[in-house]
Design a protein that fits this description.
- 4 copies of one chain form a homotetramer.
- By secondary structure, the first copy, chain A, is an alpha+beta fold.
- Chain A has 2 domains: 67 residues, Orthogonal Bundle (434 Repressor (Amino-terminal Domain)); 110 residues, Jelly Rolls (Sandwich).
- In chain A, 22% of the residues lie in helices and 30% in strands.
- The first copy, chain A, contains 4 helices and 10 strands.
- Chain A has a 6-stranded antiparallel β-sheet with strand order 2-3-4-10-5-8, with no helix packed on it.
- In chain A, strand 2 and strand 3 form a beta hairpin.
- In chain A, helix 1 crosses helix 3 and helix 2 packs across helix 3.
- Chain A starts with a helix and ends with a strand.
- At the C-D interface, strand 1, strand 5, strand 7 and strand 8 of C face strand 1, strand 5, strand 7 and strand 8 of D.
């Protein structure tokens, strides 16, 4: 572990231990380690570093989860804002069933708000017989049709709801609703998709 | 109150009353009304309708808030999805200091997800001396520069952070961070802004 | 509505309307009322009071729920604390199937923390054949056996889990887990139950 | 890491990576490791185990936090319930300023609900001049006076609010409100304190 991470984890172990009214000796006894090891963890000395399994054991002994003992996400914002210029976007081709289906361009993200995943999505396929549903995902989704037109299908794959949507249409999709888009009018379409 | 609303509020009063182990007579006594009035509320008969002040009194007597006694938002989704076509968008001109500053085009919204407020924003002003900060607002904001370029200012109005952002740039803005946009290059710019 | 409630609801309508970029005229038009009525609501004048049905309509027009437009619970705390003396406790007898089963003594509550419902429960029945399950309820529950001993049954009523618990035993029950207690050893038992 | 933990963390890395539309090669490139290492993590093979620093780097590369990539707390409940018998309680003496002040007896806890920390607290000190405030803590607190009487002080230590509370009194304390108890009437007092 890096020094800061050691220190932060050590502080969180100490605070949780105090909250559940356990002293260092009692925690050491539960984990079958010398009390000096617990002291080392809490001081963040790094002399006897905790790996993930060790941290899972500490969490169980303190009636909590690993997530409660690790640092909050790092803030990478500048006065509350994060910017991304177009040449910083990364792209990836999404294939389904061996066919290049979507190109995703990844827009600004931040560990401070991990549920925000904004994408520009180019829809490459216009054969709706080949549409593959995505199975849905956690989180809400907002979509705006930036260019072209799309055919949207959603819900039960065997008997989906459908809609044709022109440039400028906007869509809200609930968590875990499976959906798919294909292009209309013989040309690619472009969506802006914001997962949140 | 409409019949359904009466019934729903009545059910919620009954459930909360049972949860806090109060009988109808005790609730009536606290509110200084006949027990038949409490029975009427809970049955949703509408014979002695509750106005907001009355409901506030019931909420206080049951150690809760009005919000706990009124229905959840109506679901206006179709299998988890809501669509809005461009000709259904409403528009409004936002003026600041007597100058038309932004045109907002309001995209899809739903009471099921009230924090989602997506807008297409045309930025009409290019004189950054006239930029007026918005003071920030609750909720996160994602912005994508759809057309043109913008000058963004944010944070402390007396000494703001600034950035020039071309088409394709994307931005995350934390809750309550004051910000403003002006157009660059002598022509209007267009943003897609998603509050969530 | 009382004056303060009028004002608070009016402020919340104005703020929500601004957030969704709707002007007073647009809201009035959607609701088919004169714009002066909207102005009256927002000023909290009480000249044209909103009842619950009216407020539900306003909420729908603003893509939100009634709960978003009514005040937060009143704070009845003194520097963050609320006390209740024993002679302020109210009591109620809980009957199941025509038998007096529990006596509930209601301890301190506050609208600031409506999920907190602490009770002293006297268990009057010792015939476990007559035990009636409560069906479970929202919220977590912590129980401490203050006096006597109890037989606890929980889960599937047809084939419940069971345990005999002496004075000093402590129990955590998850939300919506149905459960019931009967006294052991031929005398009443007393529980402290904290729903949270 | 244990095999199960390896597998769980691997699955979570794969799911997050798919969500942010990054392929294994892109993640490997960002972290400057061979793609085979990323494959090893995701398969949970444990061949190249992740320590906490490594996991922090993976989290940053995927715009999230460590907590998002580690397992949820283990469920130690039996059909939604956890019991603790009195002889399983652990005890600890809490000292303040070199004086034994409280004896804490720790009641049932569960990683499934880590905010629940119930305690029986024996109050050993009756000299209110020696009362030491605890500084407050995260989480709500409910207290019931089981035996004896207590003098409670809370809020601003220099000018605290005070109350004398007999057996049977109940108290709600908001998060981060500093408080202290001393015994009254020349004998120890006993509290049941439920942090939640």
């Amino acid at each position: 572990m890096g020094a800061d991470l050691n220190t932060e984890v050590g502080n969180r172990i100490r605070q949780r231990r105090a909250l559940v009214k356990m002293d260092q000796a009692a925690l050491a006894s539960r984990l079958d380690v010398p009390v000096s090891v617990v002291q080392g963890w809490e001081s963040g000395s790094g002399a006897q570093p905790l790996d993930l399994t060790g941290l899972a054991d500490v969490a169980t002994a303190l009636s909590t989860s690993i997530a409660d003992l690790v640092p909050a996400p790092e803030d990478d914002l500048t006065d509350g804002v994060r910017l991304q210029l177009p040449d910083e976007d990364s792209s990836i081709v999404g294939s389904r069933g061996g066919v290049d289906y979507y190109v995703y361009r990844c827009l600004v993200r931040s560990p401070s708000v991990p549920m925000l995943i904004p994408l520009v999505v180019d829809v490459l396929v216009d054969d709706r017989e080949r549409a593959e549903f995505n199975g849905g995902h956690a989180g809400h989704e907002f979509i705006y049709v930036m260019e072209g037109s799309v055919h949207m299908q959603w819900g039960d794959e065997a008997a989906p709801k459908t809609a044709d949507l022109p440039t400028g249409a906007s869509i809200y999709i609930s968590p875990y609703v499976s959906h798919t888009f294909t292009a209309l009018d013989g040309r690619n379409a472009r969506l802006l998709a914001v997962n949140f």
